Amino acid sequence: MAKHDPDLSLLFHALADPTRRSIMTRLSEAPARVTDLAGPTGLRLPTVMRHLSVLEEAGLVATSKDGRVRTCAIVPEALAPVRTWLDEQRAIWDARLDRLDAFVMTMMREPPT
């Protein structure tokens, strides 16, 4: 059975929603106020706050409050486990495809019987 990493599952869950990915894309440019993040989504502020709480729980976003203004910033290093997992998967599939290529090339060189 494959290893189960709850942190990785939490990260993929947070990134699974297109609204949250859109928020992450916006925050990759610069920190932003919650109201600025809510505008382009067309969602009400409480809904955006729920999306932000999922991102914050996964460690992808950090928020700070100055008076009544809540500002969000991306935490890029939080994506490291996702990158590591994807790199491992790429290596596995590259090795499998290399073996398949070698097998096909061997079959093509052998004369039919």
TrEMBL record:
InterPro entries: ArsR-like_HTH, HTH_ArsR_DNA-bd_dom, WH-like_DNA-bd_sf, WH_DNA-bd_sf
Signal sequence, start to end: none
SMART domains from the UniProt entry: HTH_ARSR
Domain HTH arsR-type, residue spans: 1-94
PANTHER family: SLL0088 PROTEIN, TRANSCRIPTIONAL REGULATORY PROTEIN
Protein name from the UniProt record: ArsR/SmtB family transcription factor
